[in-house]
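To close the section, here is one more complete example, presented without commentary so you can practise reading it yourself. The ligand is zinc ion.
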Amino acid sequence: MLDGDGLSNGFTHFLRIGIKTDISSFSLEGDASISDKKEHIVGEIQGGVTVSADSGGIRVGGRVFKEEMIKFTSELIPLKVGGRMFRGEIEVYLKNAKLIVVNKLDIEDYVKGVINKESIPSWPLEAKKTQAVLARTFAVYQKMFNPRSAYFDLAPTVLDQVYDGLGKEDVSSAQAVNETKGEIITLGNNPAKIYFHSTCGGTVSSSAEIWKMDEPHLQQLSCPYCTKSSLYRWTRKLKASEIAKKLGSKSVKSIKTVRGKTRVESVVVDGKKIPVNKFRELVGFSVIWSNDFTVSKSGDTFVFSGKGAGHGVGVCQWGMAGMAKLGKNHYEILKFYLKGIEVRKMY
Ligand SMILES: [Zn+2]
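Output:
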């Protein structure tokens, strides 16, 4: 799919993010031209307007455009949608008498918007560069192989990557993106399917173990670099009655874990087996921080002692910060966690 160090066939470095779907109206602020899908300029806005679905068209302030799609382009200042600022263009589609609002922008601008949501501001630059390459690779992979809808490539939520426009960008994340411009992780001739998690707790697990999905680059390995994470080791104490309430049962008398090769596979509550992720979801992903823990009972309290945070597959983010502090660069970090990959410049 990717041709040497250049672009793949027809791949443009624009992404479409579905920032709002299935809505009746939204506020738009800025000075912009309005064009139709043939790129003909059909109007303009100055200041703020309400854009709404109208019978047979899209209403912009007092005017109705009999179009299925219009596009707002601002040459100078990013447009605001619902009070949030977005680089690039705003496309509005009419579908079933509702609106879909899409932000079309350069991948590099998207990655700038994403990486501070996915990383800790105080991490060293090489860790942010690692995260930038991960975020860019994820976006390119989704666009090529798994777009969210016919109208856009990615959702702006945890379904894909959290993106809320320009508001979260800062100087060092912009630098991390600029210094890795166009770089993505490849496996063979394609962008790699990448995964990352907060803290592995000492062992990164294989995708084969956790998801029954054998990917050559997502293998088990020892990670000695994430010990600075506050969740490297954790303990949570929960009353039996509290757990019962969360599981929707009357009482809980015993909790046992069934372990796979490196992590808990399922939790057995009073003889009933629950997949570990279902258990974590019910009790709370930020109570039972990872799928690597033991349980003991003390009176009417269960004590959960765990390692790390997240699913444990792919890149350990606190580990990548630890490696960066030891002077490793982002290529070394990515190659440590992802076996057999290359980092290549797409453009
Ligand atoms: Zn780790």
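Once you have examined the tokens, check your reading against these statements. The longest strand covers residues 14-23. Helices lie at 107-118, 125-145, 171-179, 207-211, 240-247, 276-283, 317-325, 330-337.
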